[in-house]
Amino acid sequence: MPRLLRVAAAQMGATQLQDSRQHTLDRMVTLLERAAAQGAKLVVFPELAFTTFFPRWLLDPDEVDRYFENAMPNSQVAGLFERAKALKVGFYVGYAELTAEGHHYNSAITVGPDGTILGHYRKVHLPGTVEPRIDEPVQQLEKRYFKYGDLGFQAFYGAEDWHAPVMGMLICNDRRWPEAWREYGLQGVELMVMGYNSAAYDPNGGTAEDEPLRTFHSTIATQANAYMNATWAISVAKAGVEDGFGLIGGSCIVDPNGVVVAQAESHDDEVLIADIDLNACLQGKTKMFNFEMHRQPHHYRRIVDQTGVTLPPKL
Amino acid sequence: MPRLLRVAAAQMGATQLQDSRQHTLDRMVTLLERAAAQGAKLVVFPELAFTTFFPRWLLDPDEVDRYFENAMPNSQVAGLFERAKALKVGFYVGYAELTAEGHHYNSAITVGPDGTILGHYRKVHLPGTVEPRIDEPVQQLEKRYFKYGDLGFQAFYGAEDWHAPVMGMLICNDRRWPEAWREYGLQGVELMVMGYNSAAYDPNGGTAEDEPLRTFHSTIATQANAYMNATWAISVAKAGVEDGFGLIGGSCIVDPNGVVVAQAESHDDEVLIADIDLNACLQGKTKMFNFEMHRQPHHYRRIVDQTGVTLPPKL
């Protein structure tokens, strides 16, 4: 018997440094309403959805906290929460989190159709550097502005109205790390949700990676990790050109076979809709990826016993 | 400065139960010679290359050992080793291993151009069952005929003539397990080699997986795991219809971006050639997948602390 759920990926186009919070929130409410009008019960927004991707800038220390949310919800974002609750639609959204203790995280929450926060995640795999790279026009300073996520990978149940899927959240770079997916796979995940801001090219010209290749990387990591954990996945971009620097699009909804069932075609605000059967995960979970039958954890010790590479001994 | 190596994937078509060992060995020598004639220095053969995929049959116990090699090389396979050494070509080959102690493994070796055995691997992720499934026309009895590999995932150096790449071996089902790839990634692997025999469809009709989907699974697992570990990968099928039961083809050579640079088009004996630059791994290993900078092993404990799924607690 299928467990059907209509979901939406709400890709967002660029948000400029000077865009007002209200302007961005209005765009998000519009995307939410478009998804709800098509019957979606769960809408997935990108990473750091309420602002531009500010870690590309070396900011004045006094300026940093204005990109952060000191509570969720709060007055700046309440409009999205209120509209979603009125429409009985839940959502995933990425945001910059400032805790009462003054700690900063790159975070995401999943909110149920009644406005309850069902899950809270803090990004574990922060890319970039702490110190700015000199003489470069753009930075990737996530390691400067955020602490590493301290909540691990804690799966949770989605709303009853969604057939209570086992859900997991990731943020951007996390989706390239199979360890992160496997942590959720080992909790029986059926629906992974994640947002991202991924550079379309290296503005410093330091690499041979162009936008099609970077979009391919994003897509294939999502496809294969969904397959290898027998889960649905919804992976959503903030896309387009933010203050001169390009972000890939390619938002996608992927089935437990790793097959892309919907993918964004633009770099703008765009809604993807799919009807997903959560029970499509059962084939993989009971056969090829029946972990209890087939995994051999005593052979996986390097994964936790070392961080970096240790070359084999020279003979 | 590039470290260029010309490699070959030697896909094999079907081998029937009644095919003589000599007939199969002659085909392998022909593939080796075709690859060598095109300048390949390393030729990758499939899993269990010397025989049909015998674990599909419930064999009389007295019949089992004739599919196994009690030494490597031995008189039955010596012709391949001798021809390779004469041509100064090395190879990976999968075979059924019978040890002096009477233990059975699904194994592979990589042999250098001078005939030295550079690495030895025993398959860790055995699919299938110990007991035959009743009333089914074909079985998957790897868990019956083989012990689980006890050597772990030990990377090794390829021949100096190949620019001494850090190499890793997998066998068939292993390639779908990101833990296996990561074990090698954590040893700095630059070239993964693996063979497989993968059913093209379920002859019992129990699943919705057809041959294109199964080939896609095989390819995408290789692509994404190569990308996420910044390594080249050569993945080689035994393909075609063996005694009425189909095996997928799709042998491929994949670069460290996860891009397929060569893929088989047939289900027959077929040689793929590629010139690979081992230094193409450096981009991934020093940036996106700089493990020392970005991995967070304290969050990966479930990977070794549990084998099967533990659902999140109900609230």
TrEMBL record, chains A, B:
Which GO molecular function entries does the Swiss-Prot or TrEMBL record give? hydrolase activity, acting on carbon-nitrogen (but not peptide) bonds, in linear amides
User: One Pfam match, by short name?
Assistant: CN_hydrolase
Is Hydrolase a UniProt keyword of this protein? yes
Q: Which domain of life is it from?
A: Bacteria
State the UniProt keywords alphabetically: Hydrolase
Per its UniProt record, what InterPro entries does this chain match?
Aliph_Amidase/BUP (IPR050345), C-N_Hydrolase (IPR003010), C-N_Hydrolase_sf (IPR036526)
Its recorded name reads N-carbamoyl-D-amino acid hydrolase
What is the organism of origin for this protein? Robbsia andropogonis
Q: What is the lineage of its organism?
A: Bacteria, Pseudomonadati, Pseudomonadota, Betaproteobacteria, Burkholderiales
